[in-house]
Amino acid sequence: MGGLAALAREAGHQVTGCDAGVYPPMSDQLRALGIDLIEGFGTEQMALWPDMYVVGNVVSRARLADGSPKFPLMEAVLDAGAPYTSGPQWLAEHVLQGRHVLAVAGTHGKTTTSAMLSWILESAGMRPGFLVGGVPMNFGVSARLGSGNCFVIEADEYDTAFFDKRSKFVHYRPRTAILNNLEFDHADIFDSVADIERQFHHLVRTVPSTGRIVVNGLEESLTRVLHQGCWSQVCSFGSAVNDFTAQGEPDAFDVLRQGKPVGRVQWSLGGVHNQLNALAAIAAAEHVGVAPDVAATALARFENVKRRMEVRAHVPWQGAQASAKPVTIYDDFAHHPTAIRTTINGLRRSVGAERILAVFEPRSNTMKLGAMKAQLPWSLEQADLAFCHAGGLDWDASEALASMGARAHVGASIDAVVARVMQEVRAGDHVLCMSNGGFGGIHLKLIAALQQGGANSAVPE
Fold first, then answer.
1. pLDDT of residue 333
2. Domains located in the chain, CATH noted
């Protein structure tokens, strides 16, 4: 919704927005664009009398314990008969119509792959528009209209709005669609993987016969989706028998097109997941005329997305050994167990035997419901220590992490988690903070504690 607001502002509209607990980097970006941010959903905003209320899917008809509406502004909009629409619907009608839409779908990697694809098209001189669920560092903004015909959009399977329960991505009508992966997620609206596969097939149904579906050949769930029916060209990536494959390490690999080298990617990113994301972006860019070697060369200059293994600080060690290695603080958006595991494993490949302290909060609706709590020990296998913020959970995080023994620590508050990390941290450690929210500013709290010498009691390497 923040990116959509930026697009509306760029198109010349006066835009305001409201939410509960707006946090960076999106809040900073919106204010820089001159978009007023209003805290909460109060009815006083009716006095603004906008031409259109664009409603995000966080808004519902829910009631609080005292019977009052959780979103009083929405009730006032309905009572007044004021015009309203959903974000995806507004986008389809006012931005995407008539353009070549390249949609990136999947449980994981949507933001990074969308950013890669946008950068490839930009490097090829195509001036694409884009809407990404993060801030690509190559662009510094999460959305722009662009002046070319192509528009890259992160295509989410979550539902559209309280009045439109279809997945968001069915509104986008892509000519090029990436299906990156598919796992169970969004336990608040889906009961099973089969439910999600059905929604992905609804997306497949919207791709024209002249379009291209770029599909991860390693995913059985996506194979099942396509077996339900496919009317477009299919271009696969990932496995040895697919159209696009990689040969080499994730940070330096040859791109093969049906077994023949067509480009080489050498970059600062790590992890097999990013290698697969790159193949997907290269295959999608080829559909709009960008040669794979051109795309691979562009990825060498790709700077990733904020909050995707973003290094927040290298903090000099304040302990007895002042010359020891600094502590590195990372910020990452991972919240699904598979994403947590993939992120940690990617960092492990990068840092070798150095210690990784994984600090995370189960904040997504799926994790809050406890639907995947049993997978947490598996997701944290490659971390030396794990620290869980368990405030607000209805399930016992200590019990879920019990199999990890002394490697796992649970805190009921952000401050408690920070204190526990400070008891355990050593010089040269890599502290990886993972959340799909602001995480209570834990990154800055850890940095401040380290700078103040709070780790003096810990044992240096």
1. 83
2. 2-82 (3.40.50.720), 88-299 (3.40.1190.10), 310-451 (3.90.190.20)
